[in-house]
Fold this sequence. Notes:
two-stranded antiparallel sheet
Amino acid sequence: MVCMNIMCPICNEVVRGEGENDLSLNLQNHFMTRHGYTELCDLKGGDEETACQRSGSGDLADLQYDERILRESHGSEESIHPGEDVMQSVRCPLCGKTVFGHVCDDLSYNLAKHMNFNHRVKTSIIRKR
């Protein structure tokens, strides 16, 4: 698994996780404990009433984006070459929509943009670095 980071779009605190699922759950937990959010979808998908939007990532969620695309389209076991810039993903803690971006900065910016436009959450990340 790949260790990933994202900056919280509200307070800019770095949240870490190993792959999309772990990062998404850690970010959702951060939203509950640090920012007091209670109306969050169920990222684990256990309760149909509060379930998030379905992720297209499925069982491949913890793979890097490029490797996931290769396996989805070709069933290939090919890996990414060292030093390649690969897409990463995280699921929105509010609705579960998968957001993509390169490394921490783009992923953080894209999540902040999604949360601002789709959920009207005031974010502190206003532009790419």
